[in-house]
Amino acid sequence: MMRAIYSSKTQSFCLTSMLFIPFIWFGLNVLKPIVPAITTQSISLNQIVQIPKPAPVQTPKFETPKQVQKIEPIKTPKPTPVKPKPTPTPKPMSIKSKPAKKIEQTTQAAQTTPVAQTKPVEQIQTYNITSATPDPFLAAIKSAINDNHIYPRTAKRLRQQGNVLVEFIWTKDMKLKGLKILKSSQHKALNEAALATITAAAKSFPKHDKTVQIQIPLVYKIN
Q1: Which residue in 149, 124, 129, 131 sits closest to 204, CA to CA?
Q2: Whole-structure pTM over 0.90, yes or no?
Q3: What per-residue confidence (pLDDT) applies to 217?
Q4: Can you list the alpha helix ranges (DSSP code H) found in 63-220?
Q5: Of 31, 69, 144, 198, which has the maximum CB count within 10 A?
Q6: Contact 122, 211 (CB under 8 A)
């Protein structure tokens, strides 16, 4: 019984294997999977990074020195001698001699003309009247100035005081000259009043035999 079963299984297996073998062969030979062909090529680093090659250095060519041309010296022309011009000889000038009579006349005229006599410079004596003096001439001048003493009203009202030193020349011809202020006060009105006082008092000055220079202070003080 077992043999019969075993024989039927083997027979069915053989039949099925006989049927599927052609399909298996067809699938293995015809329906093969397409495998891409991988080509292994070696790529060098020089192909990836291209390094530029250095340019060849050109060595300068030395030219052979040319022959130096000889420079001929420049010939300078000889200077032609210049003949000096003859200088004309000066003619002697004839000096006419003047007659001796005229020279004698001029010398005689010089001797006969009188020499201008220079007048002696008159020495002026200076007097400084500061206080009472025993000289009658100076005392008369001081009294004349005191009599004509002018004190401006505006200066009195403003309480202006001061001293003015005056100088003047009284000639022997009874003329007043050189009136000026030697030392002024701080107030213009007093200075002008001092000059006006001397001018008015000069009409009463006495005569003197010599020209004199007088200095006198005029006092302006409110009592």
Answers
A1: 149
A2: no
A3: 94
A4: 100-112, 136-147, 153-157, 188-201
A5: 198
A6: yes
Q: Residue 156: phi, psi to the nearest 5?
A: -65, -40
User: Tokens representing 94?
Assistant: 């004839």
In total, the chain counts a number of residues equal to 223
12 DSSP 8-state letter = H
The two three-digit tokens of residue 161, written as one number: 């005081």
State the residue for tokens 């006092």. Answer: 219
Give yes or no for a contact between 190 and 220, defined as CB atoms under 8 angstroms apart: yes
Q: Which long-range contacts (CB under 8 A, 24 or more apart) does 181-188 make?
A: 182/215, 183/217, 185/220, 186/162, 187/155, 187/160, 187/162
| Tokens 């030392």, located at residue | 183
Residue 101's contacts (CB-CB under 8 Å, 6 or more residues apart) are none
Q: Which segment, 70-79, 95-104, 193-202, is predicted with the most confidence on average? A: 193-202
Alpha-helix runs per DSSP H in the chain: 2-29, 45-48, 100-112, 136-147, 153-157, 188-201
Dump pLDDT digits (tens) for 173-189: 999 999 999 999 999 99
